[in-house]
Amino acid sequence: MSKYFLQLKKLTVCSFTLSLICTFILSPSLLAQPNAEVAGRVFDSESNVYLPGANVVLEGTYLGAASDRDGIYRIMNVPAGTYTLKVLYVGYEEFSAQVTVPSDGKRVIQDISLKLGYVRGDEVIVEGERQGQVKALNIQKSADNIKNVVAEEQLQRFPDLNTAEVVQRIPAVAVERDQGEGRYILIRGTEPRLSTTTVNGEKVATPEDEGRFVGLDVISANQLASVEVTKAITPDMDGDAIGGSVNLVTKSAFDYDKQVLNVAVGGGYSDLRGRAIYQTDLTYANRFGAEKKLGFTISGSLYKFNRGSDTNEMEWGDVETVDGDEIPWALQTLDLRDYWQIDRTRYGLSGALEYRPSQGNQYFVNGMFNYRTDYEWRNRLTITPDDGEWNSATSISGASVERGLRNRTENQTIYSITGGGENHFSKLGIDYRLTYTYGKEEKPDELIYTFAMDEDADLTLDLTDTDIPQYTITNLSEGYQHNPENFVLDEVESSKQLTTDENIIATLNLKYPFMLGQNRGEFKFGGKASMKDKMDQNDVIFYGWEGEDDVTLAPYVADEYNDNYMNGDYEIGLLPDGDKLNDFFDANKDGDLEGEYSHEDSDPGTYDATENIYAGYAMGTLNVGKATVLAGLRIESTQIDYTGNEVVYNEEGDYQATNKIESDDSYSHILPNLQLRYSLTPQANLRAAYTGTLARPNFIDLVPYRLIFQEDEEMALGNPALKPTTSNNFDLLGEYYLQGIGIVSGGVFYKSLQDIIYVSVYEQVGGNYDGYEVEQPINGGKATLFGVEVNWQQQFTFLPGFWNGFGIYANYTYTDSKADLVGRDDTVLPGQSGDVANFALSYEKYGFQGRLSTAYFGKYIFEVGENADNDVYYDNNFRIDFSASQRINRYLQIYLQFININNTPLRYYIGDTNRPIQREFYSWWMQGGVKVNL
Q: What domains, with CATH codes, occur in the chain?
């Protein structure tokens, strides 16, 4: 019944939408609408900064408009007469002026200068530094859909240098970290695959080999004018946004009323390794010509740090003792990893050249370049009880011990360039863009050295605290495992990987304003074509030593030593030296070091893919009294072609063959959309939305690869027949905007998902591989997700004296989900965290800005296991940060930031919190410097 209900619901919404659009098109009132226009620009009376999101209305009518990013508003189809033009803007005094519209239909220009609100005597309580928050709140307030906006000025308040860190402050957003830095985002309890990222409305290329989502640690926050997180998309947006859509808006010279030159220079310190951090940002923007119609903007950033981390990783599983007894969830491996050096450098550059010959007409070319290089030197000591014989859960005979080092560089590049324009005619608006975006990830020379201890170890385990399980070697002299003379070279793994993603996107939108009786509206339609080529090439070679004498670790240890590894919980011993081992490898490669190409590790991950997406949409927006109704639908058609490899190992376990496999598929989706905004008061909105969205499978999951082990009767398969996940999303939100700068909002959301995707392990039935154990991504059944979201932001400008500098920033989101996974009882969706919260207490006055902020998200399933006991969880995470700045004069500012003050770890566990599989610590780091604004 639910299937037919969903089909009927979609049909009803589509029918309503088409009826509304046809009404717009065929209504006689559209053919006889007056052509007068009232237009102008809204700006701050003191700074002349343009104010977006201002609601400009002609009092006593339903005619009005919201100002755009440049502060420009355009009220179309105004009959002749005299009106009172009224403007309400959060944080500013109310504005009104009389305008007279002539009968000849000529445009009336009325610029609007707004004064800051809340003045006590001669003291201005709403200071200029808060304009960013004011802008963001007004854009949210006037938007037809549900979104959150963070403006440039707000971006600088938190100690967030990359975009992922910025986005985590927004309600209902969690972040997945890598080496302490935010990287992937999770919106409203959904995994990263279920959301999308765009720059100025267009998708950016994905440099990574497997997923569709973009690691936002590549992009510096300094390049951005604002960040928009849309939670209820509109038909003119890409439909793959079940969780939401993150749009990164780059800077423009038309954001400012004069020439701008901002420079920041800083440095810092990382506590764990005692190493330096460097940071430089620069922005220049100016407009040229007698009428300032030509704009040029360039922003650049450099961020470099060398931090490191201390990590212990564990593997747990069922084992059998020598007496035949079963031990559930024994500690099979203890891996101590010392990331002695993590040297990351991030370069960012963005620019724009814009020409605006007249109001409503513009042409532009903008681009963004981001490069991130990550050098890693990782030392490890691995104790493997499972290689020995189990006497009991804590006593093992003949375990193995290894030492090793991974030495690799990972380079990521993302760049995009877009050219386009926008034109407004008397009754028609048109905008068009052509985008080229490219992403690349390259690991040119990754080397992993493994040295095996020359004696087996008898172990006694202490599992009192499973977060830090302890071991004692009972059959060897004390410290034997820390003597590099006792370790012999086992193998060297050499790998190279190159992933590229190239995308060309063409977009066209047309807008047509109309009057339906006394009600204004807008009809919009358009299309988009996205043509993607993606490839991944992997080459892995294993080298073994064939020389006469064994090679021990002793000549290749480093001079440095980590004497406080994991805060003293473990001793890890001397570190292998990456440079010395690399010299050894280069001198002996293809000599005494004989290599063998690994088809198992190379061929399944090597693929070529093309993916073309063609989309068209139609939508109408109608203002009826205090209500704004948006209705429309989007159609997306996808065509894919993939080439992968079948890799076969024979019944003796030897490599047999690699065969090319090709696959193709095509599918289409209709995505209906219906949204309502009702202005309960000028400061309060009630919003409701129904949106249809989708999420395509990850690239690697669609590759038609097959890895077949006939000896073990096991297979790992891709799945080119995977269907996209689709979702029907329902939102209800109430929001009240505080004139003293702030917002209180709360709402609920519900998502009904179909064809969720996860990796399944099952037994093959029938065919040539009957009875084989198969690991493959598959479509599950349905899933539901329910959430409650509350948000409170306020500057306490109503308080007297010193106290009116305080402000609060707080949000909390609760989610709950149920997912239908084949062969399992109901479980929760991967990526769904029950609790996500942010809290910050700020003070802004006398040129000072200070903020103590916290971010929290609860555990969620990171990877679906064979059963509930094998699900891998990303554990709860709570972090405390602090940032402060002091303005010395109108040009000069100093700042200081402390990050991860409470040394919160990254932690994963399998099935039960008492079975941790990874714990990673970074300690705190800080940075400070000088900002110059000219």
A: 34-126 (2.60.40.1120), 133-250 (2.170.130.10)
